[in-house]
Every structure is written in structure tokens, then in C-alpha cells.
Write a structure and sequence with these properties.
heterodimer; A: mainly alpha; 71% helix; globular; disordered C terminus; B: Rossmann fold; 2 domains; 4-stranded antiparallel β-sheet; disordered N terminus
């Protein structure tokens, strides 16, 4: 009995962490756009949706209810998700990146709502409100053993996060990242030093979008089913909260924020099912959003840098050198 | 004459030795609506000189600077750097043809350390592209070491070594001017536009700035300086251009323009001479 309970708890923890880390992937993408470059993208959910749908269409078995499926391997689906999301962000970026921050926010918000509505209505492609099911799951051969299955999935998602983290740290803590930071702080000054702000903005926007798309694809294959209501603005709001609480401009902070906020979200969701009678639970769920909003406000007031703030020295190549005494 | 880019090896030279214009402005006009902020201005700066651009407030000096630096394209006229027409190129291309600038109100990257502010100025860093950071990290690291050492040397040159690891937001106004100078020097420009280097700077720091400008010039870099501080202009410049109401009023040595009645008129008011 005890053994059953502990293996159930361990399985749940693995499931929880894998979900949290899948949000951390999206959060890493937003960190590149906002944390490093100052791009106010409020359309996160749209780019995540593009990745999720792309990978689902590429990998599901042939179906009458949506485009495809093409039955391709999961890794091909993930790669396709990154490419299509990158292309979509590139297109959006070319149209919108000349906008100043608040206008960029309005534009990206509108684009994300549009993408969600397309997912809802373009039934021949996306399956419409019924979504896409039978998305192949990693290690589905082990699905009999819930514990093993959950841990294997956790390991896979953790590996993706690790690869992204190392790759992004290499990239961001470099002269390239230094230019992004400069563009974020003062594009006129960056321009006077020979750096083209629009060029770097587009690079960061597209790469961030590709990572968000990958996050969407990883989630889709983890859950096995996607539908348009997964990609409402709530998702964007959650990811933004993760980044701000975790520490904007810090990749480790983005991951930490993803796990912390997803933990709070899950705990508050469970608390609602415990403390509210079933007929009130749908309403009480609004308290989750309210609670996260209050937390976000408090964090912005009390600790605007987040749990882990950004470093003063951008390039890792400048880390080891001590300052010469003046 | 070829001047080596590297400051340490650049040769010293008296200014005014060569007559080739490094920067030429030809009949430049800039209109904002119905107002011509710059109205048919032509002048040229010789390689190796320190030239001044003076004039009362509203004369069009900063607009002229912004046109030369590429922040905007002129309504009419041409801007040539070493004979190459650059007026339609965007601002971020100016540095590659050898033109650097500082701002009237300094624009340091406040969240970044001083040394990285300066490192950013270096041109052609392979680590500023995405792929070398993943595929050739060794090359990027080697370049970064060089860039770091050079940036530290420049910070020492502008007397800011002790603040190298601090975020630039802690600096005073005068220190910010010095940081901007080091940052633009990192790019090794042939000509530097300085917009009011003395404004808001305390007198002792001002001496450092003047001294450094002379030293940089001695090593081969040309300057065009906007300044209201006539004492500084007199000490630095052999040649001064005077602008008033968008036009070039006159040019000559600091002493000559200071004695010119048209200049006195422009500064003290009383309408324009016919």
C-alpha cells in the first residue's frame, strides 16, 4: 500500500516536473525576446500553438478530421514545429518590429488571438474545436508502467531544456548577447556603434519564436491531445509571470520561474477542488488567475528583478577576469 | 598617408599636414515641415585636424551632426566620407566607413559594465553573429580576450579603470562623456564627431577630456567638435565653422571668427546683416 502510494506520488511528481519544464522551454523563448532584447511579445500563445499544431499534423497517423497526419517521427515533428514557428515569427517580425514596445504588444496580442481563432475555425487543417488527438507520445511502449513512463518523459523534456539552456547561455553570454542588450537599452547608441538594431531584433524574435514553437510541440506530444482552448491569452499571461518571477534576462531564472509558477498553478488548482463544492469550482478557477496576478504585482513591486536577476557582465568571456585596481 | 588603426602603433603627426578632405558636406539642406534647420551648408574637414562647429542655440549644429552621423537623411545635398557618398546610408553603416560619434547627452548602456560598454564598440566581432558562438567558441573566446584587454586599456586611457566592472549607470555626467569617448575609440574611427564634450562636465574632468582629445588627435584621428565653451574651442581647434539660423556664417581660426562682426551679431542678436 505504502509502496503504491509512494510510486504514485513519484509518478505524479515526474509528471508535474515534465509539464513545468515544458513551460520552461516557452519561457526560455520569451526570455530571449523580452529579457535579452526587450521585445514586448504578448502573443506567446500564438507561436506556441503554431508549433504544437505543426508537430501534431506532421506526426499523427492519417486522419479525416484534420490536415495530414503524415505519420512522421516525433523528432521530425519537433524540427518542423521550430521551422514553421520561426517562419511565422519572421513574417510577423518583418511586419511589426519597427513598432515601439507598447505597439508591438498590441500587434502581437492581436496576432495570437487571430492564430487561436484560425485554430478554432480552420477545421479542415486543425480539426477545429475538436482539436487533434492521437498525437504520438514519447516512450508510448512503456505506457503500461506509469512510473517508468512519467520518468522517461521527464528525462526527455529535461534533456531538451538542458540542451536549450546550454545553447542559449553560449549564445546570449557572448558578443551577440551584448549587442541584444545594447539594442534593448538604447538603440540609437547601438546604431552609432555600427550595430543594426532591426537586424538583431529580428534574429532574437525568430529564434525565440522557434523555441516557443518547440515548447508547444513538446507539450503536445507529452499530453497527446491539443485543442484551441489550450492557446488562449491565459497561456501568454502564465509564461510572462514565469519569466518576471523567475528573473527576466536570466536563462536559469526563466527555468526556475517556469517550475515555480507551474507549481503554484497546480497547487492552487488542487486547492480549489478541495475547498469548493463541485458546482462552484468552475467559477473558483478564476481565483487562480487572480492569485497569479496578485503575485505578479507583488513581485514587480517588491522584487522587480525576479528570483534571479540579470548579470551586469553579459559576455561569459569577461567573467574570470578580475578588475585591475584603479 | 596610411594611418594604422591601432592606437598604440599609430604615428604622431602635426595637424593640417594633408589637404585631402576626410569629410565633406555639400549644399546640405534639412527641412522639418516648412523650416529649414540646415539650409544649404557646405564645408569640409581635412584629415588629421580638429575642427570646431559653433553657433548660437538653434543654429542647426546638432541637426548637422545628425545628418553626418546618419540619424536622418538630408532633404538635399551630399555628405562624403573620403570621397564616398554616404548620405542615404543608415546610421549603423557610418562606422564602417570610419565615422564615429558621441551624443550631446551621453548614452551609456546603463545596465552593462563599463568594460562591456567599451567592448561593444569593436567592429567586426565574429561573436556578434549567432553561429560562431556555437560552432567556433574558441575563436570567439580568443577575440573576446583581445577585445577585453583593449577595452581595459581604453578605460585606463580615459581614467575610468577603477570603475571597469561597475554598471555604467553609476557614472557622473563627465565620466559618461569619457566612457562614450572610450567606446567610440574602440571602433577605431578615422573621424569622431563630438557633440558638446564640455557640457555639464566639472573643470578637472574637462582638463582630462581636452587632454585626451589632443592625444587621440596626435595619434591620427580627426575630430569635428560642437561646443559652446569658447575657451575649449580656442585650445583645441585651428579651424572653426560658425553656423547661424541653418546657414554657414563664416569659417576661420578661433580668433578670427571671434572677432568677426557677423558672429558677434549672431550671438548677441540684432537681426541679420544683409
Amino acid at each position: 500500500m505504502l509502496e503504491f502510494f509512494s510510486s504514485g506520488l513519484a509518478g505524479y511528481l515526474a509528471f508535474f516536473l515534465a509539464t513545468a519544464l515544458s513551460y520552461a522551454i516557452i519561457c526560455l523563448g520569451l526570455n530571449l525576446q523580452w529579457g535579452q532584447t526587450g521585445l514586448f511579445n504578448v502573443g506567446v500563445a500564438g507561436f506556441v500553438a503554431i508549433g504544437a499544431y505543426t508537430s501534431a499534423i506532421l506526426t499523427t497517423p492519417p486522419s479525416d478530421t484534420h490536415l495530414g497526419g503524415f505519420g512522421l517521427p516525433i523528432l521530425v515533428g519537433w524540427a518542423g514545429a521550430m521551422l514553421v514557428s520561426a517562419a511565422a515569427t519572421g513574417f510577423v517580425g518583418l511586419l511589426t518590429l519597427r513598432l515601439r514596445s507598447d505597439y508591438l504588444a498590441i500587434a502581437t496580442f492581436g496576432i495570437a488571438v487571430t492564430i487561436q481563432l484560425v485554430a478554432l475555425n480552420a477545421q479542415a487543417i486543425t480539426g477545429g474545436p475538436f482539436g487533434i488527438g492521437f498525437i504520438p507520445r514519447l516512450f508510448s511502449g512503456w505506457a503500461e508502467d506509469a512510473l517508468l513512463f512519467n520518468f522517461a518523459n521527464l528525462a526527455a523534456v529535461a534533456l531538451v531544456v538542458l540542451i536549450l539552456y546550454i545553447g542559449l547561455e553560449r549564445l546570449v553570454r557572448s558578443p551577440w548577447g551584448r549587442v541584444l542588450r545594447a539594442v534593448r537599452e538604447d538603440e540609437e547608441a547601438a546604431r552609432s556603434l555600427g550595430k543594426s538594431p532591426s537586424h538583431y531584433r529580428l534574429q532574437a524574435f525568430v529564434l525565440g519564436g522557434a523555441i516557443m514553437g518547440l515548447g508547444g510541440a513538446v507539450q503536445a506530444h507529452f499530453i497527446g491531445f491539443i485543442a484551441p482552448e489550450n492557446y488562449l491569452p491565459t497561456l501568454t499571461f502564465q509564461v510572462w509571470t514565469m519569466l518576471i518571477i523567475g528573473g527576466s534576462g536570466n536563462n536559469l531564472g526563466a527555468i526556475l520561474g517556469g517550475v515555480a509558477i507551474w507549481a503554484l498553478w497546480s497547487v492552487s488548482g488542487s486547492a480549489i477542488t478541495v475547498f469548493f463544492p463541485p458546482e462552484q469550482q468552475a467559477r473558483a478557477a478564476a481565483l487562480q488567475i487572480t492569485g497569479i496576478g496578485v503575485l505578479l504585482s507583488l513581485a514587480l513591486l517588491l522584487r522587480p528583478r525576479g528570483l534571479l536577476g540579470e548579470r551586469i557582465n553579459v559576455s561569459r568571456h569577461t567573467d574570470a577576469k578580475p578588475a585591475k585596481a584603479g | 598617408m596610411e594611418i594604422e588603426g591601432d592606437m598604440a602603433t599609430a604615428t604622431g603627426r602635426g595637424d593640417g599636414q594633408t589637404a585631402r578632405p576626410l569629410l565633406a558636406v555639400e549644399n546640405v539642406v534639412q527641412r522639418f515641415g516648412g523650416v529649414a534647420a540646415v539650409d544649404g551648408v557646405s564645408f569640409s574637414i581635412r584629415d588629421g585636424e580638429i575642427a570646431g562647429l559653433i553657433g548660437p542655440n538653434g543654429a542647426g549644429k546638432t541637426t548637422m551632426f545628425n545628418l553626418i552621423a546618419g540619424s536622418m537623411a538630408p532633404s538635399e545635398g551630399r555628405i562624403l566620407i573620403e570621397g564616398e557618398s554616404v548620405e542615404t546610408q543608415p546610421a549603423h553603416r557610418r562606422l564602417s566607413v570610419g565615422l564615429g560619434r558621441t551624443f550631446q547627452i551621453p548614452r551609456p548602456f546603463g545596465q552593462m559594465s563599463l568594460v562591456e560598454n567599451v567592448m561593444l564598440g569593436r567592429k567586426g566581432q565574429s561573436g556578434e553573429r549567432i553561429l560562431p558562438n556555437w560552432l567556433a567558441p574558441g575563436r570567439v573566446a580568443r577575440e573576446e580576450r583581445e577585445t577585453y584587454d583593449k577595452a581595459m586599456a581604453l578605460l585606463e586611457f580615459v581614467t575610468l579603470t577603477h570603475l571597469a566592472r561597475e554598471p555604467a549607470r553609476v557614472l557622473s555626467g563627465g565620466q559618461r562623456k569619457l566612457l562614450e569617448l572610450a567606446r567610440v575609440l574602440m571602433a577605431e574611427p578615422r573621424i569622431i564627431l563630438l557633440d558638446e564634450p564640455a557640457a555639464g562636465v566639472n573643470p578637472s574632468l574637462l582638463e582630462v577630456i581636452i587632454d585626451r582629445i589632443i592625444e587621440i588627435n596626435r595619434r591620427g584621428t580627426t575630430f569635428l567638435i560642437i561646443e559652446h565653451n569658447m575657451d575649449m574651442i580656442a585650445r583645441l581647434c585651428r579651424h572653426v565653422f560658425v553656423m547661424a539660423t541653418g546657414k554657414l556664417l563664416c569659417e576661420g581660426t578661433p580668433a578670427a571668427v571671434a572677432a568677426d562682426p557677423r558672429v558677434i551679431e549672431a550671438y548677441l542678436g540684432g537681426g541679420h546683416l544683409a
